[in-house]
Amino acid sequence: MYQLCPEEPRDWHEVEALMDLCFAPGRTALSSYRLRDGVPPVGELCLCLRNGEGTLTAAIRYWPVRVGGRPVLLLGPVAVHPTAQGEGLGALLMRESLDRAIGMGWARVMLVGDAPYYSRFGFARLDDVEMPPPTNPDRVLGLELQAGAWLGVTGEVCRETSPETLAGLAEINNDPHMHAECVEIEAPLKGIHG
Ligand SMILES: CC(C)(COP(=O)(O)OP(=O)(O)OC[C@H]1O[C@@H](n2cnc3c(N)ncnc32)[C@H](O)[C@@H]1OP(=O)(O)O)[C@@H](O)C(=O)NCCC(=O)NCCS
């Protein structure tokens, strides 16, 4: 049995340690991190999965960005502890967070990652969306959460700078009363296919 909770401010360093364990050194030098600098995450979609002993086993985070002036979710990073990889927990976090994003009314999501993994969730290359260099264009992937939501949305990926949006995110992130409840989750039956 796992517990799935929104990430709280007290989880920050533990999630960072998990990301450091799972990714190559220097991950924060990647251009995608420059889009996150000084921008609050979309806290309602940042999720922590803990095992029965309370150990952080997997986590996913999202930030807001803009493409062609339109709001876009930037998915990532997502990581599963090396001892639990391949058990379907990554897929569980992807599906759960994307469902919540749809429920919140987000129209489109993008990420920078391995197409062979993310294509199973429906992500496909975004030909006309440019991440800050150096980013391999084959790793710039998108998914529509509403039909047609990526049509005509092109150009450079930019940091979210709208003061209203930033203030709204910070307010929600800092108010525990506005966060979703934790839920108990059964261990997935290996993988993503069920
Ligand atoms: C990538 C990651 C989040 C996937 O989570 P997970 O719980 O291990 O994966 P799942 O159990 O949901 O899915 C396992 C499947 O994904 C495949 N897979 C995992 N990582 C993959 C990758 N980078 N590219 C292609 N396929 C991948 C596995 O081979 C397995 O395939 P199968 O179902 O055909 O056997 C996790 O392995 C991880 O944290 N990796 C290190 C960090 C990382 O590389 N993150 C981002 C990748 S761009």
UniProtKB/TrEMBL annotation:
<dbReference type="GO" id="GO:0016746">
    <property type="term" value="F:acyltransferase activity"/>
</dbReference>
<keyword id="KW-0012">Acyltransferase</keyword>
<keyword id="KW-0808">Transferase</keyword>
<feature type="domain" description="N-acetyltransferase">
    <location>
        <begin position="2"/>
        <end position="146"/>
    </location>
</feature>
<dbReference type="Pfam" id="PF00583">
    <property type="entry name" value="Acetyltransf_1"/>
</dbReference>
<dbReference type="InterPro" id="IPR016181">
    <property type="entry name" value="Acyl_CoA_acyltransferase"/>
</dbReference>
<protein>
    <submittedName>
        <fullName>GNAT family N-acetyltransferase</fullName>
        <ecNumber>2.3.-.-</ecNumber>
    </submittedName>
</protein>
<dbReference type="InterPro" id="IPR000182">
    <property type="entry name" value="GNAT_dom"/>
</dbReference>
